[in-house]
Amino acid sequence: MERYKIGLIPGPVSVPTEIRDAWKIDYASSDLEDEFFTLYHENQTLTQKLLHTRNKIVITSGEAMSILWAALKCTLKQNEKMLAVSSGLFGTGFAEMARAFGVNAGVCEVPYDEIPDAQKVYDHAKNFRPKVITAVHCETPSGTLTTNLAEIGAIAHELGALFVVDFVSSVGGVDLDVDACNIDVGLLGSQKCLSLTPSLSISSISQRAWEVIKSVNYSGYEAYKDWEDVPEIHYMPYTHDWHSMKALNISLSRIMNETPEKVYARHSEVAKLCRDFGQEMGLKLFPKSEYFSSPTVTAFYVPENFTWKEFDSALRERGLAIGGNYGVLAGKVFRIGHMGNQADYELVKNGMNVIREVIKERA
Amino acid sequence: MERYKIGLIPGPVSVPTEIRDAWKIDYASSDLEDEFFTLYHENQTLTQKLLHTRNKIVITSGEAMSILWAALKCTLKQNEKMLAVSSGLFGTGFAEMARAFGVNAGVCEVPYDEIPDAQKVYDHAKNFRPKVITAVHCETPSGTLTTNLAEIGAIAHELGALFVVDFVSSVGGVDLDVDACNIDVGLLGSQKCLSLTPSLSISSISQRAWEVIKSVNYSGYEAYKDWEDVPEIHYMPYTHDWHSMKALNISLSRIMNETPEKVYARHSEVAKLCRDFGQEMGLKLFPKSEYFSSPTVTAFYVPENFTWKEFDSALRERGLAIGGNYGVLAGKVFRIGHMGNQADYELVKNGMNVIREVIKERA
Questions:
Q1: Can you give the pLDDT at residue A304?
Q2: Which of B23, B187, B190 best probes binding to A when mutated, by most A CB atoms within 10 angstroms?
């Protein structure tokens, strides 16, 4: 399918016309014009507000994987130690990525249907003494939200580690206080709760992190080092994407106009609808407790009398597209993405109705 | 300025409405849909045709700097040897980038107003024995076209080196036969002759290069290794940008419909107009010989009775935006970008008329 009738993929999400309208303009050169740097700065300020942080915001071109790599490569050198706090595929993924460039990466893991255990993290980290501790706010494949980031952040800082958090698929749909959680490097994607194309990546970087970034001095497309003072010096390491920067501005302004509180309430309500409706029709929630379930994405087990392929095909025949899964969760757990533009009560209700029909038909 | 009345920046260039129309559609998920992989494959085939190559095409998200890094990081390990053939800022830039991750990089340099000397390259490379030789087809800051890539490519292959070529700002405006030039890794940007936003990067990769890429086994956002069989395996290392992929398809189709021959003729004619008109009004061409001047960008010395800032301001007051310069060329040499959508006879004539007015006024 090129377009979805009912699209509930947990990212990339549907991009509303109002945001795609950014491409109506034939912009000037982002390398040269004051107006671009003003826009960049405006987006920094709006993002700081959204994240409750005074940390610097860096907005780069490319998909969110670029900053997952950036956060690791810019803070860790070969043989240095990192601890990946994991309750899912992306949590463990951080350790795999770091090992790929020679980092000594440990994993503090819990089952994928739970959220991290702060005491276990403390014990592991106290013994291992990592330079960096990583965590994931929303484990999209598991549909879980790590609600105890503040505790993990406090542990990281108590032990002198930098705290790197992937909040790619939560921020914009869930309130997160970056400074209260001691997040040194925070990572946000554009194609999730911000309802943009997957063309920008946004990082929040603390003063402690900048110091480490300078000492590591990593060079590459993912390097943060030349982004610290972009709007002040009017220089970037490459030509930026003005259209996407404008689209981000529209998206952030929409959130501020609706008010973040209302946006989060909308996500919570729609997530509750999804969980309640699903369980009512006999679906089993993947997260062990409703309390762990993310307001941005809901994960259920694939119904027992279907393979994932059969289930997905039957839904697609009726115009509904939802997310499957990866790794150990592939074929077993499916996901409904109700983030950003898709945190829409009617849309999710329509989608859940289709699921009910398909399940009923086979019952 | 947010938009240009007469825009002649040598990239990012003006993006025509027809290409920006790709953003009118609310696309499905590029991770999941056959239609996306079909589009990706179609763009691969069109690019192969444009480049006269049977090498595999890789299309990634992010600005062209991402693949300049990719080409080096995926083919070279620490302490290995690379030779940068340089006649400009980007030529020497390759060596600086490689040194930043520990490569032993030599530079075979000529003055920036010339093009590389094949005999010098041969002598240098025969003695140095690099694993990789890099070159730049169009040195955008110098406005020169390296017309002897075939000779350098033959030398690279004779000496067993991989040949990496930055053709970011030439392909789509100048004919280049990648296979005849023995180009193992070829690098193309989207915001130059293809008249796209700076959101995609395109690489052509030979079988010899794939073997080296596998042995180096570099991991990161810039890594090529997981892109070899994207359309066949329907899997990518991150969520791709469907809108940009569609925009690329529109751009490549436009070139094929106009026919590449006519597109190249249009670039040549417009470049000639620019050179002739400029010299007629007393401007001095930066390239030592007209024969070195690129059909995509023309570089002149800043007129003697102006500083660059004064000159630029006077042109901008009349609605014309052209390119300044960087590094040793900053303040001395300016550039007129007539590539892609800007390879337009009337547009360039209007721009040159403005330049003539401004020069006349002060004379």
A1: 93
A2: B23
Would you call B265 helix, strand, or coil by DSSP? helix
Interface predicted TM-score (ipTM): 0.98
Interface size A-B, in CB pairs within 8 Å, comes to 168
Radius of gyration of chain B (CA): 20
Contact residues on chain A for B38, CB-CB shorter than 8 A: none
Closest residue in A to B9 (Cα–Cα): A29
Q: Which pLDDT tens digit goes with each residue over B6-54?
A: 999 999 999 999 999 999 999 999 999 999 999 999 999 999 999 999 9
Query: Using CB atoms, which residue from B28, B221, B237 is nearest to A2?
Result: B28
User: CA distances (Å), A310 to each of A305, B32, B34, B140, B349, in order?
Assistant: 10, 16, 17, 53, 61
Give me the sheet containing B185-189, strands edge to edge.
Answer: B56-61, B200-205, B185-189, B162-166, B132-136, B81-86, B104-109
- Measured between beta carbons, the chain A residues lying within 8 angstroms of B26 are 3, 14-17, 20
Inter-chain contact A29–B15, Cβ cutoff 8 Å? no
The reply to whether A326 touches chain B by the CB within 8 Å rule is no
CA distance B73 to B94: 11
Alpha helix (H) ranges present in chain B? 17-20, 34-51, 65-73, 89-100, 118-128, 149-158, 207-216, 230-233, 242-258, 260-280, 308-317, 345-362
Q: For residues B182 and B128, what is the distance between their CA atoms, to the nearest angstrom?
A: 20
Say which residue the tokens 């069989």 belong to. Answer: B229
pTM recorded for the entire structure: 0.98
Q: Which two tokens stand for residue B170?
A: 């030439």
How much is the CA Rg of chain A, to the nearest whole Å?
20
